[in-house]
UniProtKB/TrEMBL annotation:
InterPro entries: Ribosomal_bL17 (IPR000456), Ribosomal_bL17_CS (IPR047859), Ribosomal_bL17_sf (IPR036373). GO terms for cellular component: cytosolic large ribosomal subunit. Belongs to the bacterial ribosomal protein bL17 family. The gene is rplQ. PROSITE patterns: RIBOSOMAL_L17. This is Large ribosomal subunit protein bL17. The keyword Ribosomal protein applies. Keywords: Ribonucleoprotein, Ribosomal protein. It comes from Candidatus Nomurabacteria bacterium RIFCSPHIGHO2_01_FULL_39_9. GO terms for molecular function: structural constituent of ribosome. Part of the 50S ribosomal subunit. Contacts protein L32. GO terms for biological process: translation.
Length: 114
């Protein structure tokens, strides 16, 4: 049984971190972050895309509630990202390892949509 990463943060701050990373990933298509954050972000974003593939009002409301009512990001998921993966069952993102950060030697990774 795997244990969720906490990143030394409280629950609300941790969920805000995931939402913020998800916003950036959805907006830009790929982001560079630490390996641990990328691995935690992957299931979060993939669930959003899976919900968006349903393309109905319930899916829109579910996305709005998970993404702080950010209409721009929800529209991008529903109109651009989800239709692209309509025939794909999961695995919408990839994580590429980039080596360590110079300042503190934390492993970095690039997470992007496939």
């Amino acid at each position: 049984m795997s244990k969720a990463r906490k990143f030394g943060r409280t629950t609300d701050i941790r969920s805000a971190l995931m939402r913020s990373l998800a916003f950036s990933l959805i907006k830009k298509g790929s982001i560079t972050t630490t390996e641990a954050k990328a691995k935690s972000l992957r299931p979060f974003v993939e669930r959003l895309v899976t919900v968006g593939k349903k393309q109905n009002l319930t899916a829109r409301r579910a996305l709005l509630s998970r993404l702080y009512n950010n209409q721009e990001i929800v529209d991008k998921v529903l109109k651009d990202i989800a239709p692209k993966y309509a025939s794909r069952n999961g695995g919408y993102t990839r994580i590429l390892k980039l080596g360590v950060r110079k300042s503190d030697a934390s492993p970095r990774a690039l997470i992007q949509f496939v």
